[in-house]
Amino acid sequence: MRRSQTALALVLLIALMAGLGACAAPPPPAAGPAQEEAPQTRAEKYTLWFNTLFHSGDAQAMERIVQLYNETHQDTQITLTQGQWSEYYAQLTNAVIAGNPPQIGIVHTNKLSEMYPALTPLEASPAGNLLEAAGIQGENYIEALWQAGERDGHRYLVPLDTHMWGMWYNKDIFEAAGLDPENPPQTMEEFVAAADAIRDAGFIAFHPAEDALPRKLRRAWYILFWQQGGELFDEGYTQATFNNEKGLKALEFLVSMVQERGWNDPGTDGFKQFTAGQLGMLFAGNWMYWTAKESGVNWGFAYVPQFYDRRVTWANSHNLVIPKQPEGVSDEVLVKAAEAIKWINENSDLWGIYGGHIPAYKPALESQELRNSDTWQLSLSKFADMANNGWIHYPIDHPKGSQLESAIQVQIQRAYNGEISPEEALRLAEEEANQILQSQ
Amino acid sequence: MRLHPRRLFSRLLRSRQVEGVLFVLPYGAIWALFLLWPVIYGFYISLFKWQPLLGSEFIGLKNYANLLQDARFWNALRNTFWFAALAMPLIIGIGLLFALFIWGSGRRRGGGFIEASFFWPYLLNVSIVSIIWKWLFDPDFGLILAYLRGIGLDPPVFLNDPLWVVPAIAFATGWWLAGYRMVVFRAAMEDIPDTVFELAELDGANPVVRLFRILIPLLKPAILFSLVLTAISSFRVLGQVLMMTDGGPGRASEVLALYLYRAGWQYLEMGRAAALGFVLFLIILVVTLVGFWVIGLESELGGR
Amino acid sequence: MARHTPSLSRMARRPRIRWREVQASLEMAALFSLAIVWLVPVLWMIDTAFKPTPEIFTLPPRWIPSRFTLEHVLEVLQDWPFLGWLTNSLIVAGGSTGLSLAISTPAAYSFARLRWRGRNLLFLVFISSMLIPWQVNAVPLYFLMDRLGLLNSYAAVVLPISAMPIGVFLLRQFFVNFPGELEDAARLDGCSSLGVLVRIILPNSIPAFVALGLYMFIFAWNEFFWSLIALQRPELLTLPIGLKALQGAHDIEYGLLLAGAFLASLPVLLVFLLFRQRVIRGMTLTGGIKG
Fold first, then answer.
1. Chain B residues lying within 8 Å of C284, measured CB to CB
2. Assigned fold of C83-286
3. Does the distance separating the beta carbons of A28 and C159 come in below 8 Å?
4. Same-domain status, A305 and A333
5. Which of C58, C99, C231 to substitute to test the interface with A, most A CBs within 10 Å?
6. How close B71 gets to chain A, by Cα (Å)?
7. Running DSSP on this structure, what letter comes out for residue B57?
8. Of A251-255, A386-390, B245-249, where does the model show the most confidence?
9. C neighbour chains, 3+ CB pairs within 8 Å
10. Do residues A401 and A388 lie in contact, with contact meaning Cβ atoms separated by under 8 Å?
11. Are residues A140 and A264 in the same domain?
């Protein structure tokens, strides 16, 4: 730990020079507590650092799981840190560079291309095949989710869950608009009719994207685009393939909701409108569950309607990973981390009940406790159906994914706000996306 | 006479030269390591495709060349200047106006309250200011839009309108920072001898003349200096933008510091981010030098 | 504050005394209303923080809630490490202030009162570096801190803030104007330079230290950009960054958000109410670096 010594010396020097013992610098955070465990001292406890990007409800659910782990394990304890989601991936990468990574982390499926250089290949780690050592078996996981975790023949991800958007609706408003609150619209025709009826009844009809954030509007457009069989890029990500009839049809419909049909106004927050009991229908993720439940609104939940050729919604998954560990980390630590990953999945019914996500681990998904929970009855079962029926589509998976998404969402939002035409939006987005792809 | 080494050492220590340097050393060391070195190191990084995990690649000035072709960079540059052009006069203008107000009322009953309420927003941190103003500008339930609609106007949804978003953020910034300038200007006003005004009054100069012919010229150094400092802080604006709009709608409020932050910490393009940092530094350097050239560098740094 | 200040009404020349009084009270009334308007954002924040959620989302906006509620404030305190953020902010701001004063004082003293070759040049170099906004150094500083193993420690924020030259500049201005007689007398008594600094200069420079301390404290208290990057462990977040996390997690729960904002502004409000004159005058001393 030469670096920390330098640092410590520096801090001491400064404190001395200043003649002031308090420069408020604690010793730098332990570089992955496990590193200090020498292999010889096996009798000692292992401490694994688990860093996630979860916040609010998700974070509390994960805390429960880790707490249970710590209560049931004598020799290994998990230290959990969470909540820093906006810079999470940069932080994870930089922690690996700095040789100070957590032993367990979370990575979204579509971030694999960006993140794999910072991850431990689980079947070929410095400690050998961790999947075998810990007994992690692919057939226990929802197939699509498991398969998405490989890159160049190496397995990096162990899926934890899948999460996606569905349709939340207000039953009281449905009634007031003369609609059947138990039969929410599921086709384009039904949907347009229902939205118009809600609008005419004096309510806000529909919000397609949770709130006004560009990335959310992009997801709404994805759904409409993917439902026509569109794909954003060609196979090898050499160029954008969305500036076409399908892309335009999707964007024109999205824009018309606020610019022509009067279902809502641009810039509004659907969560807020829904919670305030003013919004009829809302596209939002499974994390809406607790907000909906606490709002006091008489709500229902439905599949995303089938607007075009096939029913598809935006989805993603959280995966458990072992970030690349610096040299000197013992094999036992890696094995313990893999075992902890397996244990977390085995208890991921809690992740479903309290986090509202669909567990990727099949036995957890089928557990009685989950099936009997309110979460399952009221929304999760329908989310699970969508996953099982394959009505899900993951976002861009590319090393420059974040930049590509920025290129797209900015123009989608401008069109949605009525600032530019849908044609121009797609043209500009295509131009910038291609520029990003070529600038490698 | 030969000096004993120990006496030589102690005399050396007491010599003004060594002593002077020793006193500066603690600050100098920290300054060199945490202020000077990063500038040099930052320029070095900006010459690379900086990827510590996969191996960095020296690419010369390509990061800079790429910026010149990057529409997003030019957009951020335009937004930064637009923000500065709005925020500076707002902060300085409101500050000056309030200083005039409290200059007259400071000694009267209630003057303290007035001064305090003008000054107090300055003490809030940028996150609090952003949360408050985002809420005030809220499209559905915000106070500002509700009241404007209440008096029969059809206001734009300020934070979601490409024309209005930067002025709205600049206005919130003016609210936040004007109080500090007010205090500075008031202090400068109190340094003006009363006789100046008494003479002017005897000459029968009217209030407008007195304001523009006497007060403003006397405050000129303070105003110009404030302009330079406000310019520097306006050019590196980040917090308000990040928290109020995240650069939106579209990229209508994406400023340079935000683009830098995203390039480095969301896209992991550290080379590009370092180049952006250097460009921002050059802009601020030029603005400041021009500013000080106008004021006269010597009068400010002269000291003795 | 003995100096007589001309008032606005004096600038408008009005011979009759009564008319002056009327005008003065009208002026005060107008200023009072303006001051209230200026406070509206803060009042609305407090109002929202103590309103039940359904009443936050009503049109037209309602100032008087049907009942006051502590639920938002309690939720922030229970679900978020608010006190931890507060402690971190205090540590960072206090540490920056302390370290900055500790290292700037001898340097400023040396520049102001010791004669050695190159001091003016070096001082000019330091002062010119004021033009380097250290936020712009974010990328290299990140890797530098990483090298030093200081990332995710308070020192990562304290050290660069203390490296800002403003302290040296302000204190030098103050020390330069310090009367020389006392120092000469101390020297005759055999005091070393350090002795002079500690016994003569320090005790007589308290106002300058208070002013600089206030400036540094507020600067560090409000610092955003670099803390956002350098402190990425939830347990290390300072108030501004914690509030950003709060906003990220609850961008729809305005009651909670504004309760957080209210709580975060509370310490500053208290200090300000207690030491209003001192704070404002301290600000004046550092104001625009030169008044």
1. 183-184, 186-187
2. MetI-like fold (1.10.3720)
3. no
4. no
5. C99
6. 9
7. E
8. A251-255
9. A, B
10. no
11. no
Per the CB < 8 Å rule, is B133 touching C41? yes
List all residues 6 or more positions away from A17 whose beta carbon is below 8 Å from its beta carbon. B25, B26, B29, C103
Q: What ranges do the domains of chain B cover?
A: 5-45, 70-301
Distances (CA, A) of C168 to A20, C102, C222: 18, 10, 21
pTM recorded for the entire structure: 0.84
Residues of A in contact with B62 (CB under 8 A): none
Does residue A80 fall inside a structural domain?
Answer: yes
Q: Please report, for residues A71, A89, A237, A247, C41, the alpha-carbon distance to residue A230 in angstroms, rounded to integers and kept in the order given.
A: 49, 28, 14, 7, 47
Instruction: State the nearest Cα–Cα gap between B243 and chain C, in angstroms.
Output: 7
C34 touching B (Cβ < 8 Å): yes
A309 and A326 share one domain: no
The distance of Cα A244 from the centroid of its chain, to the nearest Å, equals: 28
Which amino acid would we find at residue A37? E
In angstroms, what separates the C-alpha of A318 from chain C's closest C-alpha? 18
**ipTM higher than threshold 0.85:** no
Continuous H helices in A104-169: 112-115, 130-134, 143-147
Are residues A173 and A297 both part of a single domain?
Answer: yes
- Tell me the domain boundaries of chain C: 16-69, 83-286
Give the CATH architecture of domain B70-301: Orthogonal Bundle (1.10)
Span A295-304, pLDDT tens digits: 889 999 999 9
Over the stretch C158-184, which tens digit does the pLDDT of each residue have? 999 999 888 898 888 888 877 777 778
CB contact under 8 A, C98 and A25: no
pLDDT in tens, A129-150: 999 999 999 999 998 889 989 9
**C contact residues 217-276, partner B, Cβ 8 Å cutoff:** 218, 221-222, 224-225, 228-229, 239-241, 243-244, 247, 254, 257-258, 260-261, 264-265, 268-269, 272, 276
Rg (CA), chain A: 24
- Closest-CA residue to B227 (of B264, B181, B260): B181
pLDDT along chain C (291 residues), means of 10: 47 60 83 92 93 81 87 88 92 95 93 87 86 73 86 90 89 82 79 79 84 86 85 83 80 83 88 78 58 29
Mutate to test the interface with A, among B54, B160, B260, B272 (most CBs of A within 10 A): B160
Query: A370: closest CA among A87, A61, A134, A110?
Result: A61
Residue with tokens 């005897």: B202
**Average confidence (pLDDT) over A381-399:** 89
For residues A42-48, give the mean pLDDT: 72
CATH code, domain with A408 = 3.40.190.10
Best probe of the A interface among B24, B59, B254, B268, by most A CBs < 10 A, is B268
Per the listing, tokens 């208070």 go with: C210
Taking contacts as CB-CB distances below 8 angstroms, the residues of chain B near C7 are 103-105, 107
User: Which residues of chain C lie closer than 8 angstroms to A271, CB-CB?
Assistant: 252
| A184 in the same domain as A304 | yes
pLDDT beyond 60 at A18: no
Within a domain: A139: yes
Q: Same domain for A61 and A182?
A: no
| Cα B134–chain centre separation | 21
Give the amino acid at B14. Answer: R
Instruction: Evaluate the omega torsion of the peptide bond into residue C267 and state whether it is cis, within 30 degrees of 0.
Output: no
What is the rounded distance in angstroms from the CA atom of residue B29 to the CA atom of residue B25? 6
Query: Which residue, chain included where needed, has tokens 């608009």?
Result: A177
> What is the domain extent for residue A236?
165-314+395-438
Domains of chain A: total: 2
Beta bridge partners of A48: A78
In a domain, A375, yes or no: no
Q: Min CA distance, B129 vs chain A (Å)?
A: 20
Q: Are A258 and A322 in a shared domain?
A: no
pLDDT score, position B14: 64
